[in-house]
Amino acid sequence: MTRRMITTGVGIAAAVGLAAAFLVATREPVPSPAGPPKESGAVMSGMEKPVEMPMPAHNGQEENAKQEMPVAGINTMTIAPERLQTIGVKFQEAARRPLDKMIRTVGRVEIDERLIARVNIKFEGWIDTLLVSAIGDHVGKGQKLFTIYSPDLVATQEEYLLALQGVRELGASEFPEVARGAKSLLEATKRRFQLWDITENHIRNLESTGKVLKTLPMHSPITGTVIRMEARTGTHVTPGTELYMIADLSHIWILADIYEYELPFISVGQEATVTLTYDPQTVLGARASFIYPTLDPQTRTAKVRFTLENPHEKLKPDMYANVELKIPLGTRLAIPRDAILESGERHVIFIHHGGGKLEWRNVKLGVQAGDWVEVVEGLKEGDHIVTSANFLIDSESQLKAAVGGMAGMPGMK
Questions:
Q1: Is the separation of the CB atoms in 280 and 256 below 8 Å?
Q2: CA 137 to chain centre
């Protein structure tokens, strides 16, 4: 038993000795960051002098790692050109270019409120015959909508015929007051017809025939489509009752939602393109005619009204349409959006000075137009900027900064 324990102890001691010898043989001394190493006056009792482990290098990358360490300046670094090519870095010169901002949104088709007519009567009566009887019917200006019977209308016709007869008999009277009275009565009765929307041709027909009509027709004031209808045969109507609402759909509105950050680019008179999702072949031109003064607190959008012609009434009220505005911003110093690294409140770009030397800069950005972003501060025309693999460069620079900060620590190269 004692011999076995002695044999085991000797084996363990030999293994520890071999391991220590291997470490000593492969270790490289590291100079102290404060200067040349000082000679130790004494050796620690029972312990070896502390040793430093080398940083591993694979496939000859140790040489490249030394070349890629940051150079003088806190915002510069050097990466071997071979390494830049490996990680797919691309460069481009900063230049001034014309920018166009595209704003795409969805709008809802609305009736032009200025092209709506409401048909009502100004006297009491009953609808006798309905000539336009369905919503959606297309009517022309002056077309008969219905006929109406009214005791007031019949009485006024009779008064007009009496006044007309008085003018004919007394108009040439030798007494001027009598002649003027007869003419005034005729004019007052005729004025009543006009206020009731009785057309001039019906008045002339009454004069020529001398016959009182039981019913008179009411006409459409505009050309358009019947949007709403309350008229029914036999219905008793009173003054102010709306019987038809007619809208001209040949010219319509589109109300589009524009986000508040896009509103500064919108102005009255700008042209827009209107398309339909289900019919891409239809492309219509529109113009911004009004920007509503209020904002929707839920969606943070404002309504912008676009006006356009509607040939063949292809667009119907309450339909949705795509609205696209192309706004020229002029010529500005711009770079690709992929060239910018966003870090919190900072925007960083990398400038290539040749030979693998890179400099990062904070820049101030302006407007964004598609894949291009305006730079208003921190960049000048002709600078060689990195346009791809920026994240890889940024990650490598942070790694190098971390390794450089650890170089002075005991046990690190």
A1: no
A2: 37
User: Which residues make Cβ contacts (< 8 Å) with residue 332, sequence separation at least 6?
Assistant: 96, 97, 99, 366, 367, 374
Residue 347, C-beta contacts closer than 8 angstroms, at least 6 positions apart: 340, 341, 362, 363, 364, 365
Angle at 242 between CA 239 and CA 244, to 5 degrees: 135
Helix axes 151-170 and 200-209, enclosed angle (nearest 10): 60
Token pair of 79, please?
């990466």
Say what the pTM is: 0.65
pLDDT digits (tens, 9 = 90+) for 190-225: 899 888 888 888 888 888 888 999 999 999 999 999
Report which of 123, 108, 124, 317 is spatially closest to residue 228, judged by C-alpha positions. 317
Question: Please, is 33 exposed, middle or buried when counting C-beta atoms within 10 Å of its C-beta (0-12, 13-18, 19+)?
Answer: exposed
**Using CA of residue 20, residue 25, residue 26, residue 30, what is the dihedral sign?**
positive
CB of 408 within 8 A of CB of 33?
A: yes
CA–CA separation, 29 and 7 (whole Å): 36
Are the C-beta atoms of residues 357 and 347 closer than 8 Å to each other?
no
Instruction: For 33-75, write each residue's pLDDT tens digit.
Output: 444 444 333 333 333 333 333 333 444 444 443 444 344 456 7
End-to-end CA distance of the chain: 48
Q: Walk me through the domains of the chain, giving residue ranges and CATH numbers.
A: 63-99+332-406 (2.40.420.20), 103-112+251-329 (2.40.30.170), 113-247 (2.40.50.100)
CA distances to 158, 195, 247 from 121, rounded to whole Å, are 20, 10, 18
Classify the phi-psi angles of 313: left when phi > 0, otherwise alpha if psi is within -120 to 50, otherwise beta: left
